[in-house]
Write a structure and sequence with these properties.
heterodimer, A: 355 residues, alpha+beta, 6-stranded mixed sheet, 5-stranded antiparallel sheet, 9 helices, 25% helix, B: 253 residues, mainly alpha, 11 helices, globular
Chain lengths: 355, 253
């Protein structure tokens, strides 16, 4: 049940022109600054906005085809939509919010089914509470339970973590990742935060000015940005691997595709390691200084892009990463596409996020 | 306390306002012994007027709620050309002098050959005409204040537009709708001019409480006072009900 969304339409000042495809079980993150048209793509997919020209197809079902005059009402499209501020109904208790989506279920079974869904998200004890009395994290879980209640054919998530405070966000992101993987349907996620897109999305599409500027894995985007905008937006480097505890309590990450990293702390199991490009130092191959950096990766130079006074260097280790240097250092090292180098950074610079 | 005189002036102004506004209302209850007021209500004509006011106001409110609620929802949630014009037309009866409203109703009833003038149905028509705008204004504002993403969320959860209106929009806007209903109720109960001109003042048929008060004040002042007392009590009840409904909303915000 692949989800395909194509749309060409004017949104005030913005000319939206996108074509996206998300496979079942896959999460595509639309990332970009506010006003880029990301949310409009979700609204078009859900049928809440009608584009001048467009196509929305989920598996064999055509939800919208302006060329053929097909435009299914939102209630006829089986979309689970998680709204930015969750849009819980204030006059209904948590379980009645969930039960609202179950009007095709026999009346007598709705409450039990709602409570079961809330239980799956760990908020069964809040079933009788009104949304106003729930915490941000609880609201998100109730909204997720409600969005999944109808067994949607596609899941649309609009800034799912932005309404949460920093402390609950990390835990919520982990849970959301599990929900996305368990859903088994195409997931389209919108975020303004590249790190969030990298953590939750299998692929990331960077959107600006109503267009997809570049699409790929987060690490590919960070390492080989097609434009200065994407380079700037992606910010951090993201590497994936398997983490385990080292002899001194540090975290050792065996990178997918080869290589090993050391970080000061982090969970065990599958992880994403994020490093800021300006924390990565480069040296000529075979000239590693004995400095305080504990991570040294042999890398191939894929690209050298000048962004103002800085130079962004795309590298393969073999996973893709990016280093950011001053233009002078880049000249001194004689970096060029196709060359080899050693990338170094301190263990403290590596942030380990659960996958 | 160099500025004590100003605080005293403020308190004095408030005392003057309060006295001016409450004294006449209090006088309704104190001018005659309470026993006489209750006895005057027992008179047949007074009971007829009360019963007629009750029936016509209830009928008018039912019509206003039934048609006004969906109309207000449409105006609040859809943008279309001429929307501002439509809202202005709807609000026009608010500023229309009651005598003009009565003449207007007579003119349209005559043009369309409706047998409404001088009937109970005519009273209901007059009440709807003058009090519907009070409800509509409040209801439009209440529906406009409903977060549109709640309505979107309802649709993505499989609810039709009609179900979204009934199960999400109306309950969310309810405090505003109740306040509008109370305003329309108050206006309908007190309606005098348009009813007198359009329906006349026939006991048991078109003579509502305000018309009965007017009918009696020269001949039977006690009866007029008694009926007035009933209207004061009902009006105070309405005001209190609105405050109670609004109270929890203010606390929730």
């Amino acid at each position: 049940m692949t989800l395909r969304v194509e749309a060409r339409t004017r949104l005030g000042e913005l000319a939206l022109d996108v074509a996206l495809e998300v496979a079942p079980g896959e999460c595509l993150a639309l990332a970009g600054p506010s006003g880029a048209g990301k949310t409009s793509v979700l609204r078009i997919a859900a049928g809440l906005r009608r584009p001048a020209e467009g196509l929305v197809r989920c598996g064999e079902e055509v939800w919208l085809d302006t060329a053929r005059g097909i435009d299914l009402a939102p209630d006829r499209r089986r979309c689970g939509y998680l709204f930015q501020e969750y849009a819980l109904f204030g006059h209904l208790s948590a379980w009645r919010n969930v039960a609202y989506a179950l009007h095709e279920t026999p009346r007598g079974e709705r409450e039990a089914r709602s409570r079961e869904l809330l239980g799956r998200f760990g908020v069964a004890d809040r079933a009788g509470a009104r949304p106003a009395t729930l915490s941000g994290g609880e609201r998100q879980r109730v909204a997720l339970a409600r969005a999944l209640a109808r067994r949607p054919a596609a899941l649309l998530l609009d800034e799912p973590l932005s309404a949460l405070d920093a402390r609950t966000r990390a835990a919520a992101a982990r849970e959301l990742g599990a929900v996305i993987r368990a859903a088994g349907v195409p997931v389209l996620l919108v975020t303004h935060d590249f790190a969030e897109a990298a953590q939750l999305g299998d692929r990331v599409a960077v959107v600006d000015g109503g267009r997809v500027l570049q699409e790929g894995t987060a690490s590919a985007l960070a390492a080989q940005p097609a434009s200065a905008f994407v380079a700037d937006f992606t910010g951090a480097v993201v590497l994936t691997g398997e983490a385990r505890r080292g002899p001194d309590g540090e975290t050792l990450v065996a990178l997918d595709g080869g290589g090993e990293l050391v970080a000061l702390e982090g969970p065990d199991g599958p992880v994403a390691v994020s490093v800021h490009p300006w924390e990565i130092a480069l040296a000529r191959s075979g000239e590693v200084a004995h400095d305080s950096a504990r991570n040294h990766l042999a890398v191939d130079v894929l690209s050298v892009t000048t962004v103002g006074t800085r130079v962004r260097v795309g590298l393969a280790a073999p996973q893709l990463l990016t280093a950011e240097l001053s233009a002078a250092s880049a000249r001194e090292l004689g970096l060029a596409r196709g060359g080899r180098a050693v990338a170094s950074f301190k263990a403290a610079a590596a942030r380990v996020l659960p996958l | 306390m160099r500025h004590g005189w100003f605080a005293a002036a403020l308190a004095l102004a408030l005392a003057a306002v309060l006295t001016f506004l409450t004294l006449p209302v209090v006088a309704i209850f104190t001018q005659q012994p309470p026993g006489d007021l209750v006895r005057a209500l027992g008179e047949e004509g007074a009971l007829d007027a009360l019963w007629l006011s009750l029936r016509t106001t209830a009928a008018a409110l039912a019509a206003i709620l039934l048609l006004g609620t969906p109309a207000a929802y449409l105006l609040a949630t859809r943008g279309f050309r001429g929307r501002a014009m439509v809202i202005t037309l709807i609000e026009l009866p608010l500023v229309l002098p009651p005598a003009v409203a009565g003449i207007a109703l007579l003119a349209v009833a005559g043009d369309l050959h409706l047998g409404l003038p001088l009937t109970t149905a005519g009273v209901v028509v007059a009440l709807v005409f003058v009090s519907a705008p009070f409800y509509l204004r409040q209801a439009i504002a209440a529906f406009e204040a409903v977060d549109p993403t709640l309505l979107d969320a309802s649709r993505t959860l499989g609810a039709s537009p009609a179900r979204t209106f009934a199960r999400i929009a109306v309950p969310t806007a309810l405090p505003g709708l109740v306040a509008g209903t109370a305003l329309a109720l108050g206006r309908a109960l007190g309606e005098f001019g348009a009813t007198l001109m359009f329906a006349g003042s026939f006991q048991g048929v078109t003579q509502t409480v305000p018309l009965a008060i007017y009918d009696r004040f020269a001949t039977d002042f006690t009866a007029a006072l008694a009926l007035s007392a009933v209207l004061v009590a009902v009006s105070a009840g309405i005001l209190l009900a609105v405050k109670l409904v609004r109270g929890p909303v203010a606390l929730r915000a």
